[in-house]
Design brief:
Strand content: under 5%
CATH class of the largest domain: Mainly Alpha
Order of helices and strands: HHHHHHHH
Distance between the termini: 66 Å
Number of strands: 0
Structural class: mainly alpha
Number of domains: 2
Radius of gyration: 20 Å
Number of helices: 8
Shape: globular
Helix content: 40-55%
């Protein structure tokens, strides 16, 4: 074989190796074990474990990654950019370079860090509420209104209705109390 062909083969092998390593790192750094390894995120991890999305449901189904809900899923590039910004901000806050986010004070801002594209990644059936399995009439009406407003360009968000304030045990039950306790211990 020619030197040029070996260079292409070698480059392809190295490129695939780097891509694989990057994919593994993206996966590992999105898992709850990694996210709650920071002291700041411990209350979120504990509350998630007992929530519907953490596996406390009749089916035992658990969301695989924190990033399934807390990063946008419209495109790979958008996902990776948001992951980089969010991870960098969290790491800098954890070591004290920048101010930590006060999650208790910002609990009502959850639509800025919980993305509809994440919800719809698993709950795609709600895109057609008329045929979605197991929805009550009230739920069908609410989801029909959501899609009508969404298509009209209005500012809508899944977590305006689906959250721990309106729906106990949803994603992070008892989180506000845990965050309050954590703040008092400091």
């Amino acid at each position: 074989m020619s030197t040029k062909l070996w260079a292409w083969v070698g480059g392809a092998v190295v490129g695939l190796g780097i891509a694989y390593a990057a994919a593994v790192m993206v996966d590992i750094t999105g898992q709850d074990k990694f996210c709650i390894s920071c002291h700041t995120m411990e209350p979120m991890g504990k509350s998630f474990e007992i929530s519907v999305h953490g596996g406390n449901n009749p089916h035992g189904f658990k969301v695989h990654h924190c990033t399934d809900c807390h990063l946008p899923h419209e495109s790979l590039a958008g996902y990776l950019v948001a992951k980089g910004i969010s991870g960098t901000r969290d790491a800098l806050a954890e070591v004290g370079i920048i101010k930590k986010v006060d999650f208790k004070e910002n609990i009502h801002e959850m639509e800025h860090y919980t993305y509809d594209s994440g919800c719809l990644h698993c709950h795609a059936k709600v895109e057609d509420p008329k045929t979605a399995y197991g929805m009550s009439e009230a739920s069908r009406f609410a989801h029909t209104e959501y899609w009508k407003d969404n298509k009209a360009g209005k500012d809508v968000s899944c977590v305006r209705c689906h959250n721990d304030i309106n729906m106990p045990n949803f994603a992070h039950p008892g989180l506000v109390d845990a965050l309050k306790k954590q703040k008092e211990e400091k």
